[in-house]
Amino acid sequence: TQTTRPQRILKAVQKNATKGDPDSVISAIDHYCKHSEWAMNVGDEKGSILDSVVSEVNPSTVLELGTYCGYSAVRIARLLSPGSKLITVEFNPAIAAIAKQIIAYAGIQDKVTLVEGSSGDLIPKMKECFGITSFDFIFLDHWKDRYVPDTKLLEECGLLRKGTVLLADNVICPGAPEYLKYIRNNRRYESRYYPAHLEYTKVEDGLEKSIFLG
Ligand SMILES: Oc1cc(-c2ccc(F)cc2)cc2cccnc12
Ligand SMILES: [Mg+2]
Q1: Is the pTM value of this prediction over 0.95?
Q2: From the alpha carbon of 66, which atom of ligand 1 is closest?
């Protein structure tokens, strides 16, 4: 019977990575997606930009929208200081089940809370369910038509504070034009674009970093 792409990625991790070594998990996924089959992980070029932003912010509380196989959850969590927490939201239960195993294989499961459901439903519950006052860092990497409504929801729910950093993947490909329009023309945010390429390809893409000014 046919396996799914996330299942094949998990197999590649179990075969080629070292248990408890997040860097080897990242390398194993990148190698598989470069040489065997493409998958929508943020990848190593945009991933290095993600690493530099996370290291600069050194966040205590992180929200990731769109877990997929857990590649960026591993990238982010491996850089977090002790006691810091990443909450990652995945809509698809079958994919979430794979991500959970990849996050555990990397050995950083203590820093990560994987939540299944839609961002629109879960964001209003963040305070009561996870005791979050506000997020220091947010990585938007889910469906592009959710970037604007979820950003507005985060504002309305008081989950942003002066200095919260939002980093959005795929603002060029597949593209999030409404998000760019919203965030770049909003005086409550200071934005900067980081040019790169769509993971594992030469296609233009990039990350948009925005600081909430309060
Ligand atoms: O990084 C991503 C890439 C793509 C994508 C899919 C097919 C393409 F032909 C090009 C790009 C989709 C994503 C959906 C959600 C989060 N990230 C994505
Ligand atoms: Mg993406």
Answers
A1: yes
A2: 16
Q: Is the ipTM of this complex over 0.90?
A: yes
Tell me how long the chain is.
214
- Which residues contact ligand 1 via a Cβ below 6 A? 40, 66, 141-142, 169-170, 173-174, 198-199
Determine which one of 30, 64, 90, 141 is catalytic: 141
The per-residue DSSP string of 90-132 comes to: ES-HHHHHHHHHHHHHHT-GGGEEEEES-HHHHGGGHHHHH--
Residue 162, both tokens = 């002066």
Catalytic-residue membership of 162: no
Dihedral class, residue 124 (left if φ above 0, else alpha if ψ from -120 to 50, else beta): alpha
Query: What pLDDT, on the 0 to 100 scale, is given for residue 192?
Result: 98
